[in-house]
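Posting this for the archive.
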Amino acid sequence: MVMKVYAANVKKYEENRHLVCGIAKAGAYITVEYISHSRSGTRHALLAHRDGIVWHTCQANENKRPCWHLGMAASLWDWSVPVDVTCHLEQRVLNYLWWDATQDYLGRPGNFQLVAIKTTGEAAPEPPPVTEEPEIPIPDEDAWLKEYKLPARLLEKVIRFREAQKARLSEEQKARIPKPRYISSENELRVAVAALLYGENGENWEAPLLIGPKSSGKSTLAETLAAILRLPVAQKVFGGTDVNAEWLLGGKTLQPVEGVDPVVEAKLKIAARQAGIDLSDVLPKLKQANFRIAHEAGLLLQAVQAGEMVIVDEVNMLAPEVTSLLHGLLDWQKVLTVPGLGTVKAPESFRLVSCMNYGYSGTKELNEAFQDRFRSVQVPHLPEEQMAALLVRETGCERDVAERLASLFHKLANRVENGDLPERILSARALMRAVRECRDGCGDLKEAAMSVLTEGLGDKYARDQVKDIVEACLV
């Protein structure tokens, strides 16, 4: 699991240095023996490799949150934060003889019980090296992909897919490729990209099902997946009762046809001659008014035929008749059955991504067999530091303003999680509106935030709670 370590985690380590029993080194490794709490005295060990790999488990990172222990690893190895680390959720104590380095870091000797410390004259064996992933050449225009730190094998498949797309897309399709705007907080983006490119060349792909709370960035992640694969996106499919099979697949329509059938034209001329009628003025009009019955493709069928990406938002609000249409596209066959046309095979480039949030009214549990056709991916809220970075990027506000708004968002999220506030209060867009309205002179930041967060709430108790939290965060 990849986790991002922030300056706040390092600061927390500085506050908890008294819990560290000892720090030991051996080659490219540091191991730390520490107690979980000054009252409990229970000892634990953390192992950290200088290349950003950590073996450690605690309640925080089991819940996919960075902890002070990871801040400790970043401090000891002098990693520049924020930094991504690969965290293995296990305690590992290597059977090596370690050098006591506690004096160098903390100014006191170490006190070890779990770690074997080297005494004078003993030689500590060098731990085995960590295998480094090969460097994958990336075209200059795709250099932004480095930001997402995809594994080498996966990055190689992404680049091959993108190169194939470059050759096949029209200019109109290229204009419909979204911009990559998602900020990844854990491993969710890598997992979703991997699902879209299973197999040697991505031929065995599965559709990611992005599951997360309101304002966690599910739709932005879906669009970023399209950007990574260089896939155009047509109009999104939003779950609801107004979405039906005809809208997705299309239906019969009359299509103009040039000319008149030669046999019909000959019969008309004979009949007109016998009746003494001149067809010289009528026949050209008949040729222009000739129609045939044809199938007009709906949104889903168009995307399948063009080999593009379909994004289904709030898939758990779709009617059963609509979800049944997707079964064939989600199977290994990747086909769409269209009444009147038969079976349409999706091109190799076609992809589908779905999003859902169990918290919205009108949503329901997905049928187990239907959900099993997806690769489920949990999308969490951004941590405070990344939320602040998002606000700075999207609004251009000052960093301290963004940090206060990010803190406000997380305090609101905690109250929502406890059931004290409705989920509708969570909105990164509302925070961005507050910044823009403040900048345009519609009050100070606190007034703007109170306005955008409370004026849509009908419950006075909820409004009062939100106002109290805004007062505390935006002093």
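The first helix runs from residue 7 to 15. The radius of gyration is 30 Å.
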